[in-house]
Amino acid sequence: MKKLLASTLFATGVFALAGSVQAADCGDVSIAEMNWASAGVAAYVDKIILESGYGCKVTMVTGDTMPTFASMNEKGEPDLAPELWVNSVRVPLDAAIAEGRLIQLAPLLSDGGVEGWWIPKFLADAHPDIKTVQDALKHPELFPAPEDPSKGAVHNCPSGWNCQISTANLYKALGAKDKGFELIDTGSAAGLDGSIANAFEKKTGWIGYYWAPTAILGKYEMVKLSFGVEHDKANWDACTAVADCPDPKVNSYPVSDVYSVVTKRFSENAGVAMDYVKVRKWDNQTVGKVLAWMDENQGTNEDAAKYFLETFPDMWTTWVAPDVAEKVKADL
Fold it and tell me: Does pLDDT of 94 surpass 70?
């Protein structure tokens, strides 16, 4: 990925464009600091690079997907949403792009937002025949239920989340109960995380719902299993994601599109800083490592952003011109 980014930058001449820059070229910039970890860290990575590297004056604005999008669309502020999960605002975002109010840039998460059923890598390595969810369900003995080890367990998404519905429907579609598996309600995100941590501590099997990028997948190496079918959006919307669907079919989770979105004003006024925002992206594995460090060290979004910049210079220095990179390094 690093080589690809670097070659893309050279091919498009971004390095040539993004030379020395004066503060006046960038000016005041407002960035949405979304209320989940990966987006909050990304916002501070942008803040540090835009301020130190491009001389921008950055203001952070607390945000969430729907209210941030509405504010950008209707009021033209904040200027930048680094990590917008666009599937939930796809129709109005397309309209805003067509009408010239907002601009969708590169995908911040190069892998997209990923959901699925996962197993520990140590288990996948020990049982290379397990490639799909269906393969795993042939072996309830490998995934013992916490209350009744004679049965297997599929760990569900936290209560009240949409993924609780889809996981329950997939459990039903796969006939997991008849294969000797119980569907375990983990109750909360903390409960779900705790069940994974416990499995790794005891080196026991675990299968269930999780998503990336997250601190847990940065800390514990997991393998996402295939459902053996392509994502069927029509069936997903009509049944998989609908509570108590009477006849669910096996389906795959969608990959969520996660893009940076900026206002027209920013795109016109930010100068070469816009070139940086156009190209920077990171992968879920890297984000997971940063979030795991943040969790273990009880760090803030800003702490984690500095950790990323100090630990992964081979990645972020491909996003900017060499003189910009030196300015950022000097300020760390």
Answer: yes
